[in-house]
Specification:
about 160 residues; about 0% strand; 3 helices; 2 domains; about 95% helix; mainly alpha
Length: about 160
């Protein structure tokens, strides 16, 4: 009987060992299903680290976009400033041309007055040949001298 007892006992021991193994296996499954708080924090930290990396990469991308956008705006402003400088040069050129045109106006007036004076001198010369009276010829010579003097002053001065 002792051998039977031993066998039975062995069965009981095997059942207890199996129960212990089952309990250990269920505890392992439970431990896998419900991680400890420290393990959960580590997982959350890893997830937050990934989020931080993604956020930092997105911020770098946004900075690059803003940089190139501002660079384009500055390039546009530079082009506008250059065109403004060219416009100022054109205005300066127009001012110079206006002064030249004003000078041309004075020259034209002088030329017209000079031409009229020449015409008067030629008519006085013609009249000199037509007049027989010496006194009138002397007066006509004085008029011709005055016309010549006036013609010379027209050439030397501006008429406004």
């Amino acid at each position: 009987m002792s051998t039977e007892k031993n066998n039975i006992h062995l069965l009981k021991e095997n059942k207890e060992v199996e129960k212990d193994e089952e309990v250990a296996a269920t505890e392992e499954v439970k431990s896998e299903e419900a991680p400890s708080p420290a393990a959960g924090r580590e997982a959350a930290n890893r997830d937050m680290g990934k989020v931080a990396v993604i956020v930092s990469l997105l911020s770098v991308v946004l900075l690059v976009i803003f940089f190139f956008g501002l660079n384009q705006n500055i390039a546009g402003l530079s082009a506008e400033v250059k065109s403004l400088g060219e416009l100022r040069g054109q205005v300066q050129t127009l001012d110079e041309r206006l002064v030249d045109l004003e000078d041309v106006n004075g020259q034209m007036t002088r030329t017209v007055v000079y031409g009229l004076t020449n015409e008067m001198a030629m008519e006085a010369k013609y009249l000199e040949g037509q007049i027989n009276d010496e006194e009138q010829r002397a007066q006509l010579k004085e008029i011709q001298a005055m016309l010549e003097k006036f013609r010379q002053s027209v050439l030397s001065k501006k008429i406004q």
